């Protein structure tokens, strides 16, 4: 299983200039990405949203897309990158960081 992790790291000062609409990310952006990536084998998606009760978190949010193999993941990201980046300004001005990883359990 391959996991594509998309993280939105807060700056050290977490300035008021940073904006992140978590509701849009969860209800619009990630379902759109899962739908676009489905034809390339995306089998699941998740979002980690910081718990306010736990105090300050280092991330605005972290999204995950799951694939059966690395070729599916790379093909999906390559074919959807333009659409994904066009949607980013609808929910944040923070640049996403992406990591591909092998999931072990």
UniProtKB/TrEMBL annotation:
InterPro entries documented for this protein: Dimeric_a/b-barrel, EthD_dom
Name the record gives this protein: EthD family reductase
Species the sequence originates in: Shewanella corallii
